[in-house]
Each structure stands twice: as C-alpha cells, then as structure tokens.
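Reading a protein record of the kind used here takes little practice once its layout is understood. Each number in the token line that follows is a code from a learned vocabulary of backbone shapes. One such record is shown here in full, so that the layout can be seen directly:
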Amino acid sequence: MSTTAMPQGAAYQRTNTVDSAPSTVYNSPNDSPTASASSTSLSSMGSVEEFQQLKSKPLVDTYGNEFVLPDYTIKDIRDAIPKHCFERSGLRGLGYVARDFASLATTFFLFHKFCTPEYIPSYSLRVAGWALYTVLQGMFGTGVWILAHECGHQAFSPSKTLNDTVGWVLHSFLLVPYFSWKISHSKHHKATGNM
C-alpha cells in the first residue's frame, strides 16, 4: 500500500540554498551550534557603527532638497492645538455613535433595496456596487471602532461609567470583548511609548 505521507522528520529538515550557510543545515535548530543570520533577523540590520555613519549624512527629501528635522517639542505641538479640542463631551460622543449607526443602517437599506437585478440589470455593475458597499460599510464600521477605542482610553466622555457602558456596547456590536481588551490595550500603551 502506497502512502503520500512524508518520511518522518523530512518536513523539519532545512534545505541548503545559495543564501544559507552550510554550518546551519541540521535536523533541528537545537542541534545548530551557532545562530545564523537571516534577512529577517536583527543581526542582518547592520551595526551601530553603520547607524552612526548614516546620522552624519544629510537627510534628503523626495525632490533632492536637504531636509532638516524640526525641533518641535511635544509641548509645542500640544500648545498649537486649540483648547476646545481637549474637552470631552458625552453628548457629542453619543452624537457620533448615532451618526455612525445611522450611516451603517442607511447604507445597508439603500444597497439591499436598490443594488438588485430589478434596479441594476448588469451583473458587473452590481458587483461594483457591492464592492462600493463593502468599502462604505468598512469605513462606517471603522468609525464605530474608533469610538469604542476612545471609550477604552476614557476619552469618549468625562464619565467613566458612560465610557465603559458605551465601550462595552460598541465592542459587543463589533464582537470584541471590551474589558479584557481595555486591560491588554492599556498594557500595550504602557510598553510602547506611552502615547
């Protein structure tokens, strides 16, 4: 009886190619005496000396002009933003939620009512219409996600209760668990520049 199964261990053996070093061809990574550099490893990204040499070269924009990094501070940028942009409003936030759900519902109704063979006989035009529908619903759904995300950051309104309630409802609509996401996302920001 013949079989199409591979011999045991054959799938785990590395094939020696032009780019690979002969010393790294072993049955298991544990058998390899030294780690090999690959195009995706940190060791292939260059040395500190190469990086320091790059810093001494002038930066050039896409038109060939010398680019000088601006010396703005975070405080300068925050001071340039009008104060009213930092004010949280639960009423305004709920208005955005209503707007996004109205957009989702309206788009759904219009396309399911009018993007049919009775109104658009051409199959290719209906396909193009449904592709447009997908893009529009994706944009409005992204708006819902952004509002839910802001609830997790307590930026939706000044009320923690309103933030968590709206965040839970919106995340449930998006099939994402709110409170576990809020905890893990908070840890994510604490570990990545604290934005």
Summary: The chain is about 50% helix and 0% strand. The beta strands are 59-60, 66-67.
